[in-house]
Amino acid sequence: MNELSEKNVLVCVTGGIAVYKAVALVSKLSQAGFKVKVIMTESAMEFVTPLTFQAMSRHEVYTDTFDEKDPSVIAHIDLADWADLVLVAPATANVIGKAANGIADDMVTTVLLATTAPVWMAPAMNVHMYDHPAVIRNIRRLHDDGIRFIEPSEGFLACGYVGKGRLEEPEKLTELVGGFFSGTKPLQGKKVVVTAGPTRERIDPVRFLTNFSSGKMGYAMAEAAAGMGADTVLISGPVSLPEPPGVRVVRTESAEEMLNAVLAEYDKADWVIKTAAVADYKPKEVHGRKMKKQEGGQLLELERTADILLELGRRKSHQLLIGFAAETNDVEKYAKEKLEKKNADYIIANDVTEANAGFNTDDNKVTLFGKHAFEQTFPLLPKKELAKRLLTAILEKEDANDR
Ligand code: PMT
Q1: Active-site annotation holds for 12
Q2: Residue closest by Cα to atom 35 of ligand 1
Q3: Of 8, 128, 131, 349, whose Cβ has the fewest other Cβ atoms within 10 Å?
Q4: Looking at the domain assignment, is residue 202 inside a domain?
Q5: 358 in Cβ contact with 352 (< 8 Å)
Q6: What's the angle, vertex CA 73, arms to CA 119 and CA 24, rounded to 5?
């Protein structure tokens, strides 16, 4: 008997070839000490019989909303209330579509509507299906409803394609469920420094050069890091956002101030995440008085600011250095060049020409590049959710590197 034996995990199995991995998942969850019950859709039963799941979970398997075995309860409500966590694995495009639209036409989708427990979905499907705008739209909707998605991994798919769409491994899913219940804080004991927002480079007392960064992405990164247990310092350019809970905020204005603030934290930092859109140029001369307009044009001579990330890359000892790259073209090429040139460990590339992504938006769509050709693309997501996914992806990659 351990503390996990108090936790009830309801696994909803929907119909795809990855059902065979759901058998291993139910077995691993049971071995880890969870109480596991299984619901199967009709199409899942085309792949594996309920008896297999019954043997693995040591509970009867539910397949039919109208098959009321116990007259003292209504089965789908009873199951929905029983669950501490509902895990849909594999989650097909079909169940994602139905859940996104509130359809309840079988035991799985009815329980998904009836439960108040957290719901996770682990999709598995063909790579083109996963990339289809309808699936992306449905996943987004479910995200907004608070459903957590465990991204499929990349590799050889049963349909013959190689790409993203494999159900996450049962061991990994079991680990995530364990982490969820034990409240694991994977960045506990780490100091994470995040920069956010724009910088302002003064021309005179009333004018400055800046850019459209709102700080939303950087603030989301800081909030996610703190949520994962990191001692988090947020070095912020001028933005008007509320301070994320549990984060120490250092306010800066210019690139130079931001550089000094980051360097002051750098020795003790384990991770530095450079989300800020730092000005590359500043006026060579800062006028002490307001510049007066005059006849004709006006030339403003600019000089380079310090490249903070480049400087951190030069001074790097034990730190993990994560940069961002906002690009309008040749995104991959420039991101990889920055990874190399700035001695970063990861570059998170934004194509800022994408609709509803990049500067001053609530959502973002990025690709994470790492050393040795590591690359992971994320769909358009709310910046807060994306930040969690990015940190988790980096943690997982670092874990894999250590193994
Ligand atoms: O703030 P939001 O409105 O939410 O928008 C988010 C964002 C688009 C600003 C963010 O996601 C992003 O892409 N940030 C990086 C923008 C940028 O300046 O990219 P860059 O390609 O110019 O710089 C590459 C990296 O070097 C960045 O990590 C940047 O912080 C760093 N840099 C750049 C110039 C400089 N002088 N010093 C730096 O440290």
Answers
A1: no
A2: 307
A3: 128
A4: yes
A5: yes
A6: 40
Cβ burial, residue 287 (10 Å; 0-12/13-18/19+): middle
Lowest mean pLDDT among 79-88, 147-156, 325-334: 147-156
Q: Give tens-digit pLDDT for 71-121.
A: 888 999 999 999 999 999 999 999 999 999 999 999 999 999 999 988 999
Residue 228: inside a domain: yes
Residue 292 lies in a domain: no
| Domain membership flag for residue 186 | no
pTM reported for the whole predicted model: 0.68
278 Cα–ligand 1 center, Å = 6
Give me 53's structure tokens: 């799941």
Residue 101, helix vs strand vs coil: coil
List ligand 1's pocket residues with C-beta within 6 A: 197, 213-218, 255, 274-278, 280, 305, 307-309, 323-326, 338, 350, 352, 358-360
Q: Considering the candidates 134, 159, 162, 286, report the single residue annotated as catalytic.
A: 159
Tell whether 104 and 202 lie within a shared domain: no
